[in-house]
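Extended Data, panel c. Modelled sequence:
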Amino acid sequence: MAGNGISAAASGNGKAKVVIVMGATATGKSKLAVALALRFDGEVVNSDKIQVHDGLAVVTNKATAREQAGVPHHLIGGVHPDADYAAADFRRDATRAVESILSRGRLPIIAGGSNSYLEALLDGEPGFRRRYECCFLWVDADTSVLERYVGDRVDCMVEQGLVGEVREFFRTDAGYSRGIRRAIGVPEMDTYFRMEAAGALDGDDELRAGLLEAAVEQIKENTCRLVCSQLRKIHRLRCLPGWSIRRLDVTRVLSLKVGKAKDEEAERTLWESDVVGPAARVVETFLHSLGGMVAEVSRDGKEQSTVAKHAAVVAGIVEAAERCGLQLLETGPSRGIHPRKAASAV
């Protein structure tokens, strides 16, 4: 049922309303999207360019039926594993999904980590923004905590069957530049499976274990690089007109997850207070507002001034630059500052 009887289909300026959940990998975007869908009678549109492909549910971390909690999901699977899926394909399919959801009087919630595809949807052509008013939510965390959680999550994926799942997709003549084989977790296993196919690992448990350990470490490193790439794109978008992005801090939740003492009840409490609660308040205000615009708010619920908002954006860019090995490029007073790769990292 829609929260507080809010209709998702109408706004004062005639535009339908769409919620967009952004964030780096492993921050809980899909979980938040489901929570909001349950509160506001919504449906989720996936914006992860790898998850649109069939297969590799563990490697690509697709939401399970239990995690989807009965909420309809769109663009999860359906594309052949070997097929290319370009930004133009996503723009077409996501637009159709949003129109379908709105036709049922429900709230479209777009969620995923492929920010370049989101940019193509919103800014690739003027039609989407002319028809829809967007509310942007960004699930973020302290980078050091997120990187620790990424490592733990990769270990969990191995326990859940990552090796066997990728083995089914391994082919000696297949590349890793298209389709689902681009997914982190697939190319990193290449050496392991080639040696296994050649019989070089038969009877050599030490070599097998060493190769697997090296592959898993590479998966973790590449996932952390992906996090940095996603953060760079989000900070760049946040500096552009039309991308008023509300940051939600999931750091305390992830800190509990990577801590030695597990406390699921405390995790649930913090998830609600730090992420779901603030997000729900922003969405409710967005759905009630005539023009679809929502003021930036801090964790204590107070509206931020323009100066405070700009300072927060700049601080986020600096933090991302320091963590991800970037230097800052001054682009002029009218355009702000943007991160770019440091020369040593090119």
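The chain has twelve helices and eight strands. This feature is highlighted in the accompanying rendering.
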